Amino acid sequence: MMIYLPIAEVSVNAFVLLGLGGIVGVLSGMFGVGGGFLMTPLLFFIGIPPAVAVATEANQIVASSFSGVLAHLKRKTVDLKMGTVLLVGGLMGAAVGVVIFNYLKALGQVDLLVRLCYVVFLGVVGALMFVESLNAIRRAKGATGAPKRRRQRGWISKMPMKMRFHTSGLYISVIPPIIVGILVGILAAIMGVGGGFIMVPAMIYILGMPTKVVVGTSLFQIIFVTAFTTLLHATTNFTVDMVLAVLLLVGGVIGAQIGARIGVKMKAEQLRILLAIMVLVVCGKLATDLLFQPAELYSIGAAGGH
């Protein structure tokens, strides 16, 4: 069933969009990522212009993340206090990101920038997560005692403005979570992602949060940052395609509930290595598109923007 998307100005199969939304929703519930890191490139691949994909995908992330958070709140695996601190940074970062996005859109360079950002960030994060996950699995098999992961937070323990986060069992400075939030907010605005693929590793390896709390807390923060980002894009860029958003949203909400159930049954190390592999696969596909399809760099879509 083909459907016309008025803002994107293309026709696509409605069932394909529902399916993509469902798959990304499952990932959202399993890994605590908004799923935008995967969905936005997939929208590129089916012909959606990058500027529209970025703005609209932020909308879908809100719904799938909200659905995922409800599932995690029932299990009491959301640190609301930490999520709020991350959110403060996230909102500041999102505002900065939209300003950068608008400037590059005016220069006509936004499509290339979005693709390059994906290749760089997905490549780096995917590789780091893959290596660390393999090490964690090896430690779990060979070590008799628990791995000493907390030592990585030595420099954070010396920072001022400390706060106690009871759900995570932490007493740390609020400065690192705010900085992490700002960086993720900028990424949310420029790349149309919830930022979970950066947020989840940062919460585990930099802040030292327990993995079982990380997923729900990440989704809690993602809801508000991406909602704010969508609002800014809709009012400044007019690139939010509501028809596309609704189709992705329906699939995403259903998928997130399924993903949350699957995630609880899997070990943390298995979840992390699966996410790392997925990130690297998407990165590889985007990189090959940039390298072997130079014609993509020239777009007639720019003529319609005003």
TrEMBL record:
GO cellular component, one term: plasma membrane
Domain of life: Bacteria
Compartment list: Cell membrane; Membrane
Transmembrane segments: 12-39, 85-106, 112-131, 186-206, 213-232, 238-259, 271-288
Keywords: Cell membrane, Membrane, Transmembrane, Transmembrane helix
Membrane topology: Multi-pass membrane protein
Stored Pfam families: TauE
Record keyword NAD present: no
InterPro entries recorded: TM_pro_TauE-like, TSUP/Inactive_protease-like
Family that this chain belongs to: Belongs to the 4-toluene sulfonate uptake permease (TSUP) (TC 2.A.102) family.
UniProt-recorded name of the protein: Probable membrane transporter protein
